[in-house]
Amino acid sequence: MPYFPSRSSLSFAIAILALFAAAGCAKKPAAPSGVSAARPAAAQIWRVNNGAEPQDLDPQTITGIPEHKIVSGLFEGLATEDPKDLHPVPGLAESWDISADGLVYTFHLRPNLKWSNGDPLVADDCVQTYRRGLTPSFASEYSYLLWFIAGAEDYNRGKLGDFSKVGVRALDDRTLQVTLHHRTPFLLKIIASHNTWSPLPVKVIAGFGPLEQRGSRWTRAGNLVSSGPFVLKEWTPNQRVVLERNPKYWDAANVKLDQIIFFPAEEPATEERMFRTGQVDMTYELPQSKLDTYRRQYPESLRIEPYLGIYFYRFNVSRPPFNDKRVRRALSLAIDRESIVKNVLRGDQQPEYAISYPGTAGYTPRARLTGTVEDAKRLLAEAGFPDGKDFPAVELLYNTSENHRQVAEAIQAMWRRNLGIEVKLVNEEWKVYLTSQHTQNYQISRGGWIADYVDPHVFLEIWTTGNGNNDTLWSNAEYDRLFAAAIAAKDDHERYEIYQQMDAILVDELPVMPIFYYTRVHAVSPRVKGYYPTLLDNHPYKYIYLEN
Amino acid sequence: MLRFIARRLLETIPVLLIIITATFFMIRFVPGGPFTAEKAVTPEILRNLEAHYGLNKPLHRQYLDYLGSLLHGDLGPSFKYPNRTVNEIIAEKLPTSLELGLISLLVALALGLTLGILAAVRRNTWLDYLCSTVAMVGICVPTFVLGPLLVLLFAIHFGWVNASGWYSPVDRVLPCLTLGCVYAAYIARLTRGGMLEVLSQDYIRTARAKGASEARVIFRHALRGGLLPVVSFLGPAIAGILTGSFVIETIFQIPGLGREFVNSAFNRDYTLVLGTVILYATLIIGLNLVVDVAQVWLNPRLKFE
Fold this sequence. Notes:
The complex is a heterodimer. By secondary structure, chain A is an alpha+beta fold. Chain A has helices spanning 6-25, 33-36, 65-74, 123-134, 152-156, 187-193, 202-206, 268-276, 291-297, 325-333, 337-345, 373-382, 402-419, 430-438, 457-460, 477-488, 492-509; strands at 45-49, 79-81, 88-90, 93-98, 104-109, 168-172, 175-179, 230-236, 240-245, 259-263, 302-315, 350-351, 394-399, 423-428, 444-450, 512-523, 528-529, 545-546. Among the domains of chain A are: 10-50 and 233-304 and 521-546, D-Maltodextrin-Binding Protein, domain 2 (3-Layer(aba) Sandwich); 305-520, Roll (Dipeptide-binding Protein, domain 3), CATH 3.10.105.10. Chain A starts with 5 loop residues before the first helix and ends with a strand. By secondary structure, chain B is mostly helical. At the A-B interface, helix 1, helix 8 and helix 14 of A face helix 2, helix 4, helix 5, helix 6 and helix 9 of B.
């Protein structure tokens, strides 16, 4: 019968079959973007997958890493980061003086600083920015990074109504004086690495509603005025964010990229395919299942870099059996971290035997969790559970994720084999899990902590009494005393010696069981240059360029 | 018929109200809130955040406030994206979802009807078996398998299209094909079944006896009745294509509403959850009404009652 379009449907059927056949044998590796994608030599357009759609681009209300990655190209701090080791180098401020007691910082802004709209950038912009960030009703989640300023915490908590009593002052257009509440040896690192301290275009913001109103429209493309190497050219939600070179930037002559395009693909498998077709020059992460393929076929694109973060299990020390430190120690000794890192994670993570990260700004903890499985058994027996007998029912909580599940299963098996105890695995959706953890509604809970700046302080402050992120109910008077003493210490040498004692207490008490130190695993095209491995995974964009 | 439609529209109001109420309270009773984060904030900041969005008021007050602003067509600000309102997000994303859905639907209909009719007309021949097998495979292979397979083949292997995105017209091809194929498979099976049933009816034999050409029998007489199951399926299918595009949108990085719909629940973005639920509920109710009207129109044995 000639009436039916049988040919087209037939060819479709054949196409479908061919598709499956071809997909089965399409194993021939496609060249990664860096090899095949040829572009005109002039265009320096860096295409990055950024892992998520940014919530907003207001440096004072954002909390996530994808937002931080975009904003760090738009706004510069008084100090900024060195591209190789992130140590503070002059940014908007060309220099600074620190008083002998370490309490007064005087920043000297560069001459003729301009916002991207041409307005002069002056010291008072900083003052107004900090006032905004500390205004209680503005409710900036990261405002605590400004609390080092004298009076700032009280003002932020609503106990002090007069901002003129807060220790920040513009002495003239180019001089900013900040008086601290206490010595803060790592203040410049925070200023360099975190945008909470970067001045904002307050006059522009005020044009879009009250300065202290969250979520006004000043952050949209066309409205946003910036101070850093780039300006916001386009923000199409869930499509892309485009940054373009800022000709008004003080160091514009040294900015090499013309554009940075941030894509918001969330799914690691999707972005990996984008990388392979050359749509992006860099992925946000890499599926674990692809690691071996990349090691074998695209080693030049695979980047595995140390990442200043720790992965651990919290014990709820208020509940038996984990109120007994022998039990915590037994469990901590009975796992094989080398095996977890090598066989489960496979991303060159390092086994963790102490809390602090080795080599954080010159600090490496001397304390180390040592002992054998035999020691673990003995400790468990001493605690009243010989060979795991009568050990109560225990649940191990983690947030729903394939990687966390694999680690938890490995540890569950190790505890069963080495100690004879049975632990039940419980996974919860992210926010349910966070709520359980913040309300201490758990027995053992997976945890992780990624540093905001490079200083051992970040991993040690969490475990002080009453810290909102402690969540273990562990409290140790000596530890708290040392923490206060460290802040008052006269130099880094003295401070680090105190941190050594704090790390020793943590390894002895083990409110958390260290497991491994993170690494950052992603794919970066070999044509991306000036991109160095850094502990925070921050990469000052003005040093980056593409080799054609 | 107008009375029928008017009555159905009136019935919609209490249904929507129940959906809004249930959603409003259910999402509130889920542990965690829009500001639950890994890094704890001070209680003062949390209180101020909640005050900013009116979350410090009693729940019934918030509910009434929400209904009040809903009457003015205001779906409120998004919690997750502070500088955008829910109205804006829907206005931005809905057209993309509609485009994706519409093209996929056309793909599904074109493929599904062709395969189904072909299979029915060449019943129990190799052509029928081939079409039925293809349809069965289409049903069995989920989108999250088919999508990456298509990308592997056409984007990575041949390099004809982008692996993901929604930037140029050619970016529409793979996602629409993926989403369309699944529904095409269902439509093919339904069409075949419907056609076979109709083709064995007396009036078809009468038509043939009167000497009508085969084409006239199939397209003029049989198709109208044979498509009834497809039409009933289309209502839920369109709703499914629109609301269920989450997977496709994630695989292909498409800025549609399906992802907002699912992610808003994870983000506890209360207003965005409500906004998308209301929109989808309205769409589903509306589509069901259209399907009911279409069925009566196609099937003389039914009446508006």
